[in-house]
Amino acid sequence: MKKDPDAKEVARILSHFVNCMGNKVEDVVTALDDEHRTLQQGITKFCVKWLEECAKKHDSKCFDLRNQASAELGKAFVERIEPRERAMPFI
Questions:
Q1: How far apart are CA 45 and CA 89, in angstroms?
Q2: Which pLDDT score, from 0 to 100, does residue 1 have?
Q3: Which site among 11, 13, 42, 70 is 20 to 30 Å from 4 CA-CA?
Q4: Whether 91 contacts 41, CB under 8 Å
Q5: Backbone angles phi, psi at 2, to 5 degrees
Q6: How many domains, the chain?
Q7: Does residue 43 belong to any structural domain of this protein?
Q8: What is the dihedral of CA 36, 52, 27, 67, to 10 degrees?
Q9: Which residue range(s) make up the domain with 29?
Q10: Averaged pLDDT for residues 7-35
């Protein structure tokens, strides 16, 4: 499967944002709330996929103290919510 060339750039921008202590996540969340509803659905799908990836890290023990909480949250998420319930329809 061919990777999206923009994926690395999006990851870099997101990483840069969360790495700056002065940035407020709440401001981004509020800004996302103003986006088109279909785009919000896509953003939720992105977040679900990230939590599923974190769960894989927990299962394979590929985490340390820096991302342990993410791995544990991802694991709890996938254990409590069935895959069919995690699927985001495109409407």
A1: 9
A2: 64
A3: 70
A4: yes
A5: -80, 135
A6: 1
A7: yes
A8: -170
A9: 24-86
A10: 91
